[in-house]
Structures are given as C-alpha cells and as structure tokens.
Amino acid sequence: MTNKILFKYIDHPDQDKIATYIENGGYLALRKALKEFKPEELVELIKKSGLRGRGGAGFPTGLKWSFLPKNMNKPIYLIINADESEPGTFKDRQLMEYNPHQLLEGTIIAAYAIKCHLVFIYIRGEFAYCAQQISRAIQEASSHGFVGKNILGSGFDLDIHIYRGGGAYICGEETSLMESIEGRRALSRQKPPFPAIEGLWACPTIINNVETISNIPHIINNGAEWFASIGMAKSVGTKIYCLSGHVKRPGNYELPMGVSLRELIYEYGGGIIDDYALKAVIPGGSSVPILRADEIDVKMDFESLAEKGSMLGSAGVIVMHDGTCMVAALQKLVKFYEHESCGKCSPCREGTNWMNKILKRMLAGEGRPEDVDLLYDVASNIIGNTVCPLGDAAAMPVMSFIRKFRDEFDNICGGGKPYGTISFPFR
Amino acid sequence: MYLSEQTRQKIMELRDRYPARLAAVLPVLHLVYDEFGYLGTDQLDEAADALGISRLDMNETASFYTLFPKHKVGKYLIQVCDNISCALRGADNLVSYLESKLGIKVGGTTPDGLFTLWTVECLGSCGTAPMMQVNDKYYERLTREKVDKLLEAWRNSK
Q: How many beta carbons lie within 10 A of that of residue A371, not counting itself?
C-alpha cells in the first residue's frame, strides 16, 4: 500500500539530473504521449484516471482541461502554479528541488494535451533554489530536444518561462496569479469568466498545481485504470501529506489517498513530542477548519474530510499538543491573513484587521466577554462575501477554533489564565 | 545613473520577451533587487525608463510585493518565519534569541550594517522548523548551536 509514485526516487541523490532521470524511466511518457496519443485522447485519459487538483480545491484535472474552447484563434496558455504558500504546506518545494524533470515532463505532456505552446511556471519568489533547479532542468531538457521546436520530431513546439513571484500568498489564487504575470498588483478577478475561457491576456488558460502535473507522466506510463485503482473511490492516486508541528517526525509523506489521520500522526509522524497529548489538528493547510483530538479517526481524502466538516485542502497537517493556547495559535493564523489580504474586498481587508485586533486584545488580557461573539460575527461576515477564497480562508479557522475551543476564548476574555502557550522552547 | 550597464542591458532584453511588455515588471524587480538588495524609487524609475513603461506602472506593482525591501538593509537580511508551524517548534524564542545575540529588535539593523532582523510569514519550510531565510538561502531545523555558528561565520566574513 505504501508504494510511492512521486517520491519513488527521493533517496537517489542525482534524480534531479537528466541522465539519472532518464535512467529511471524518465521522458518515456513524453515519447509515448507524443507518438501514441492525439491531444484530445490525452484529455480523455486524464479524465478517466480521476486525477484531481492537488493545490487545494480538488477539481478534476481532465474536466478542467476539457473546458477550453474548441477551434479558437487565440493562443492557449498553461500556468504551473508553484506559488506554494499555504501555511503548513511544503510538498511542491520538495517536488521541484528533488525531481524537477518529473514536473517538467508532466508539463510538456499537459501542454501538448491542451494545445498550448507557451507555459509559465510561476514559482514563489522565496524559492530561489527551486527556480534554479527548474531552470537547469529546462536547459537540460532543451538540449535533449524535449523542449523547443518540433519536440522529438512530433511537430509540437513549446516554450517554457520560469516566472518568479514577489512574496504574495494571494498569487496562489489563480486569477491573482494571472494579474501578477500581467505585471499588475495581484488583485483577484471576478469569476466567471473562468480562466479556461478568459485567462491570461484574456486568452484561454489552464492553471495546474505542481503535484498535480507531476502525476501526469506516471498516468501515461501506467494507464488511467492503474491510477484510478489507488486510494479511494473518488479521491484517487497518492497524496503528499505535509506533516508539521508537534510530531516527532515532521516531513512529507506520500501515501495513498484516504490514509487515516491517526495513522499519519502516530505511525508516520511517530506521535506527539515531549510526551504531551494531542489537542488539535489542522488537516489541510492553515485555511481549513480545525479538528479536535477526538476527531482524528478520519480518512485523509476530499470526501471523508468534508464529511467531518473540514477539508483536505493542500494536505498541510499541522499538529498541536495540549500545551498549546488555541487563542494564541489562532492569532498566528489571523495575522497571516491580515498581512496577505490583497485589499480589494472590504470584508476581507477590514475584517482580517479587526479579527487580529480583537485577538491581540484577548492575548493582552484586555478581552471583554462579548469579544468572542464579536470575533465570530466578524468572521461570519467575511465568509462568502469576497471575490476570491482568501476571505473564506481567513474566516474558516476563526469560526472553527471558536466552535471547537470556545471555553478557551471565554476563559481568556473572563480574565482567566491562558490554557497554554504559543511560545515554545528554542534549544 | 544607478543601474549598472549589465542590469540595464538585461532589462532591455526583457522588453519583448513576453506577449505583453508589462509582464516583464516582476522579472525586472528581481533584477533590481539582485543588484541592490532593495528597491529604491530612483532605481525603479530608471528601470521603468529602460523597460519602456511608465514609472507609475512600475511603482504601483513594486509596492505590492513584500519580497523586496524598499530601503537599504543589512548585508545579511535575516527573515524568521513566525507563522503557526514554526511557532509550534519555537520560532518566537528563536526570534528573541536572535534579538539578544544581535542586540537589535525585529525590524532593526545592527550599527555595523551587517545584520537586519525581520519576521515573515510562512516560507514553506514547516517540516524543518524552526527556520530562517538569510538573503536567498534557507537555514532549517535551527538550534541555538547552529545559529551561533552561522552568526559567527557571517561576522568573520566582514
């Protein structure tokens, strides 16, 4: 059950070099795709595989591709979203650092499938090393004839630009990302029109996550049925779970979709540090609703977590032990969203600022008993009232923290001592 | 004239690289940052002229992105992530430790101009927390011992 796909060669030191990548079966999928498939057949194959986006929303990849208008005389663009910045998430970084060719091969195949001739790989600005790795990989691939004009004699041309971000979380949101490439402040756009119809420079555009695209070569090599047979009924394939916080062995774990959260924390993560007990887990990156310790018997896939009132999101699993103050932990999250709000929609711009103010006042011992309801009220007036999902992302943790740990908020606002801390030892 | 001939040349080459010229703005910001370590208004104006776009467009976009300091900072810009995953592994006390070792508060620069200390949001290094980014490089799984060694090496490299 623990067969790795994306991380299969994680222990091979030279997997990032094209010679090693090819030795390990790399670029066979590209040859196969160009030789044996028409673009439309590839879209069908990816649809059949059940592959869903790994950036957070879990939208079916093949279906997204099929939304592109047919017979249009505008260029089609592909953007690889490598702007990984959801707190608790660090999988795309490792995928790019250790195996840049896997992403590149998937990118070239995806571009061929959607008839795109210009790709942008949008890498978050801080990931300087990732940009170097991908840049070198593109050069190597070009010299092998995998990128450029008439790839492997197929008549298919492709250029790939690396585009480095500027440190803005909002650029992970696809419409803001496109604004960013177009050279403007990255304020989100209203949808519809969806990017597949009107995206970059008002041309049809597909935006896919790094992990999603890294799966493509394996689906070509092994078939749609093989991929669909891994994991759960609707959430198929493997998933890279990013484990962080109070576990003994934090890190990335590639496991079949639907591994249990308990197993992830206690088997793979080695359990909780310093003999503490588990208090809470955020299962899908900082934006998703938190789970209490008694809710961890849940499978880690899109459907199972939704049934529990949370989300798989980016699968950033943040573990907190019972020495953690939930009010202080929430303030860490809220100050992030306040900082990253692009400022376009007032509920998000003003609301995140007010939520942070209220939380800071609680932590300073100046919270009033009515502040807990006030905080919840501000959050519930942000959610659903903004152009892009950043507003929801800021509101969901606030509402779920209060719902599940209300006594901690009431206690601190009633003048009580916090139940824990966020100031952990640095040794 | 602030920009080096080399940077100016690179900016000119970006004029027609993308389907629209404005798309070169963010790559140009990186070029200016790489040369100066920050984005000053004078440099940005020159960069806009070299790229052939309005100075307003350049400044409007530049002011949105927090990756680039807008004023001169220390030779070593220390950025500590204090978001949730790093905080759970001691980031707040890493910050205090750096403050006491450097004799400055967050936001400050040492009098010799060697170090600037900032806190920043999640850098995608949550599994190897606590961490800091110094200029372009990540330093992960930090301990007091590691921080001591790094600071000493940077002080000696003056």
A: 18
